[in-house]
C-alpha cells in the first residue's frame, strides 16, 4: 500500500510541473493544459526510463517541487508542535521534509506505467485564492480508478500545492500522525533526527 501510495502521489504531482505564466491560468486549466506534455516526457525520456537516478532526481527537483509550498505543508503536518520549534529547527524540518519527498518521488518514478488522468473543471474562482482541483487517475488492467485532490493556494508567483489527497488519504494528515508520534518520543530534535536518518537510508535506494 505504501508503494502504491507513493507511485500514485508521484503521478499526481507531475500534473503541476509548469508554472502559471499568467493569472488567467486557473489551476484546473493549468492541469488540463500540461498533463499530456508531462506524461509524454515521462514516457519518452530515455534516461528516466532507463532508471538514471541523477536524471530522475533532477527531474523531480526542478519540475515538481517548485510548485509545492513546503513551509505550509510542514506547518500543517506538525500542527500545534510547529510553534514549539525555534526558527532554525523549523527551517531544518522543512528542508528534511522536502528532501524526503524528493527521494520518495525519485524512487517511485521508475515504477510509472501507462496511467491516464481526467481533470474535473472548477467553477468560476472569482477572487478566491484557495481551491481544490479534483482529478481521477485511470489505471490499466481493469484496476479501479484513483481519485486525487490537490489543495492549492494562489501566491504572487503562481498556484502552489500545500496538500495532496489520494483516495481519501491526505499527505499532510498522514505525516501529521508520524510527526506527532516522533515529537512525543524525542521532541522536535527527535523529529529532525528521524527525518535525517530516513533521508540517509533512501540515498542508496
Description:
The protein has helices at residues 2-14, 27-44, 46-49, 53-64, 70-78, 87-109, 171-202; strands at 116-119, 130-138, 146-155, 158-166, 169-170. By secondary structure, it is an alpha+beta fold. It has one domain (2-202): Nuclear Transport Factor 2, Chain: A (Roll), CATH 3.10.450.710. A hairpin with a 2-residue loop joins strand 4 (158-166) and strand 5 (169-170). The radius of gyration is 17 Å and the shape is globular.
Q: Would you list the SSEs in sequence order as H and E?
A: HHHHHHEEEEEH
Number of domains: 1
Largest sheet: 5 strands, antiparallel
Mind telling me the C-alpha Rg? 17 Å
- Percent of residues in beta strands: 15-25%
Number of strands: 5
CATH architecture: Roll
* Percent helix range: 40-55%
Write the layout of secondary structure elements.
Layout: H1 2-14, H2 27-44, H3 46-49, H4 53-64, H5 70-78, H6 87-109, E1 116-119, E2 130-138, E3 146-155, E4 158-166, E5 169-170, H7 171-202
Antiparallel strand pairs: 1-2, 2-3, 3-4, 4-5
Give me some keywords for this one.
single chain; 205 residues; alpha+beta; Nuclear Transport Factor 2, Chain: A; five-stranded antiparallel β-sheet; 7 helices; 54% helix; 17% strand; globular
What is the compact description of this entry?
It contains seven helices and five strands, in the order ααααααβββββα. It has 205 residues and is an alpha+beta fold.
Amino acid at each position: 500500500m505504501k508503494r502504491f501510495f507513493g507511485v500514485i502521489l508521484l503521478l499526481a504531482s507531475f500534473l503541476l510541473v509548469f508554472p502559471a505564466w499568467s493569472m488567467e491560468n486557473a489551476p484546473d486549466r493549468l492541469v488540463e493544459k500540461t498533463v499530456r506534455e508531462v506524461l509524454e516526457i515521462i514516457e519518452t525520456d530515455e534516461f528516466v526510463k532507463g532508471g538514471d537516478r541523477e536524471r530522475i532526481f533532477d527531474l523531480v527537483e526542478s519540475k515538481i517541487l517548485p510548485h509545492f509550498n513546503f513551509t505550509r505543508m510542514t506547518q500543517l503536518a506538525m500542527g500545534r508542535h510547529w510553534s514549539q520549534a525555534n526558527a532554525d529547527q523549523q527551517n531544518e524540518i522543512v528542508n528534511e521534509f522536502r528532501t524526503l519527498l524528493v527521494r520518495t518521488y525519485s524512487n517511485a518514478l521508475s515504477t510509472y506505467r501507462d496511467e491516464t488522468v481526467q481533470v474535473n473543471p472548477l467553477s468560476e474562482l472569482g477572487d478566491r485564492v484557495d481551491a481544490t482541483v479534483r482529478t481521477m487517475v485511470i489505471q490499466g488492467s481493469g484496476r479501479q480508478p484513483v481519485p486525487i485532490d490537490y489543495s492549492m493556494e494562489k501566491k504572487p508567483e503562481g498556484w502552489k500545492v500545500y496538500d495532496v489527497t489520494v483516495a481519501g488519504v491526505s499527505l499532510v494528515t498522514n505525516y501529521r500522525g508520524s510527526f506527532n508520534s516522533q515529537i512525543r518520543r524525542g521532541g522536535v530534535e527527535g523529529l529532525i533526527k528521524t527525518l535525517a536518518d530516513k533521508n540517509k537510508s533512501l540515498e542508496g535506494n
